Protein 1
Amino acid sequence: MRLLGREELTGPALQRRAYELENEPRSVRLRRTAKGLALAALLAASAIAAADDQDAIDYRRHVMKTLGEQLAAIDMILAKKAPADSFAVHLKVIAATATQAKKAFEPKIQGGSSKPEVWSNWPDFARRLDGLVASSDELAKAAKDAGAAAVGPKIKSTLDCESCHKVYMLPPKP
Ligand code: HEC
């Protein structure tokens, strides 16, 4: 029988080893447990490290999807398919989410639908997100004062999502 690949034990030798293990001093047993725990922690840490990159990609996609959902809600209001009460709030949420987006893209982790230029042209990429924060914030204020009907026509031209996607996002796979 092989024990931890270190020793070959059979018959009486195995019995002796079992007796030793049962009667070993507490300090030895604790050390053995500590070694086992350290190994488990190491394995867990490497599993976390392996998941890290995908986590960063998933996280920024969740944040970007939030932008998409909020814009879809705004489009419904403008099409009069949803009540206009929350119009300004949706714009506020876009401003807050664009702030989060900059944080979410900060880790330099390629993948998802992002082109490598996100990080090689970081100042331009970041400036575009800052622009989105500022413009959606302004629209939110205007919507609070003047209402959805007045601000609606400005949404498409002011919230420029497509121009950034053209430069920094990979086209969808066929
Ligand atoms: C500064 C550039 C930039 C701006 C501005 C921007 N996006 Fe994006 N967006 C990206 C990039 C890059 C990705 C790809 C992320 C990935 O998969 O790694 C993306 C992905 C997305 C996705 C796909 C998420 C998924 O995985 O399904 C949606 C939806 C989206 N953006 C919506 C928007 C909306 C709506 C706006 C405007 C309100 C916007 N984006 C503005 C760069 C931008």
Protein 2
Amino acid sequence: MNYTKKPKVIVVGAGVAGLTTGIYLLDNGFDVEIYEKHYIAGGECTGWYRKGQYIDGCAHWIVGTEPTSELYPLWEHIGAFDGNPEIFPTEYLTKFQLKDGRFFTFYSDLDKLENEFLTFFPEDKRAIKRFLNTVKVYRFTHIPVKKPLDLMNWFQYLAYGISLLPMALPFAHYKHVSLERYIRHFKNEDLKSIFLRFLDPGYNIHSFFYVCQTFSKGDAGVVEGGSLAMMQRVAENFKRKGGKLFLNTPVDEVLIENKTAYGIRLENGQELRADYVVASTDAHHTLNKLLLRGKVRDKGFERQFKDDKANPVHSSMMLAYRTTHNMTDYPRMMDFMIDKPFNWMGCDYTHFAIRNFTFDKSLPSQNGETLLTVLLPTNEKVYQSLKALSPSEYKEKKAEFAGIFTKLILEKTGLKEDELELLDVTSPLTYERYTNAYKGSYMSFVTTDKTHGLMRPGLIKGLKNFVIAGQWIMPPGGLPIALFSGKHAAYRITKMAGKKFLNKEEKALALLKRFSIGR
Ligand SMILES: Cc1cc2nc3c(=O)[nH]c(=O)nc-3n(C[C@H](O)[C@H](O)[C@H](O)COP(=O)(O)OP(=O)(O)OC[C@H]3O[C@@H](n4cnc5c(N)ncnc54)[C@H](O)[C@@H]3O)c2cc1C
């Protein structure tokens, strides 16, 4: 290493994790270059335009939007909230239409939720109380955002362990209970279906408790302007701090000699040297392509990818529409039952949720039209079937899918045909093409009742000067995991360089900024 210069780090990928790693490394006196294959930064946290209409392709909720929460200062620090965008709280997860046509509101506030539950399902009073009490205990969950667990001293480790004590018992109890098994406690079929319409039956119930506790703390809002604008702010912040961002620059391989990473080779053949390399790309891509095309092994990840029963991945189809209808009185998120459930390419569809973007007046649109999106989970069969199609067949299948749901949307919302315009259809192949996401998955491994272990360190045994960041280090992934994994990767590199990690993000400062400027 040349000690007269700042140590140089190359980060592969400019998603949430890559940019976060870069920003924290710049704070710690490193030279940072990020290489990104796509023509924009943001990775899966993105949005795009069709016919002048902005389409948000990601954040339905962002954990860490509540100013006193542990993740808020990280978002603030990386620049996600630069310019003080409005943060829209999530009053409810979704309004679920029941069989009799009434809407059940899954409130974030637990008192309101209890009231709603008991009004609709009084026969399940005991099970509902038990559910809500467990959610309250899960509010003690928190992520070791300051530093990776294995780098804590024994005192910090002990303090972290003690802070989690209240939820130790429920966690141990529910760790291996699937959502499907948990809902057997309920008598009412509508109540069961609400749970199943929110998360897949194979999910561990632990994930459901986690989601509900986050909402109950008001810590899962969305940010004005959408995912694309948020990530553009983060990328600008990275560049302002002196980071170099190379877009349209796919990386072919990490260069390794004597079991030490020393740079990267771009797909155009150019070799670039660095003191450290961070891969913030999809973990499957990292292991099977970037790291000598699978020759550098990581048994833990290999086991996870191999055992797809215990660690499945989920992907999605997304339909984007704009409507000229005034949607102000419609819920922000509404979930409808499909009267005649059907199977499309191997995946069952029994319900669908429409996201109504009227809440965000800043979104660019034409003549006051509103964006509506419908995100529909898909499975491995859909991914494989779509992958086997020719380009024209693929186009036809997407049109077929959109046709089915357009009809359903018109039927359920009462919108007229000429009020609804289909703008775009994405599939797992879209996310695979743009971000190299494994099977087009939109999070990392689903946490099931068979999932073992949660957090991975992001280090490969026997490989020096290399760290993995990104949502795959902790199932089920998502934006919060990508965020803190980036900070952790920077922490590890700083430590490898023999330096003390300087934590420039300050909770008090973040709060002060939020409440003193322009609000
Ligand atoms: C439709 C959808 C909705 C979602 N909704 C939510 C939500 O509401 N809340 C939530 O918390 N999460 C949500 N997520 C998940 C969230 O977007 C991801 O968890 C997060 O963005 C992952 O960030 P990351 O940095 O770990 O990985 P990525 O975003 O995948 O970033 C990896 C980057 O590496 C780049 N790359 C890959 N290979 C190479 C290469 N060889 N060379 C150079 N660059 C490369 C990619 O292009 C990408 O930019 C959603 C995802 C999708 C797709």
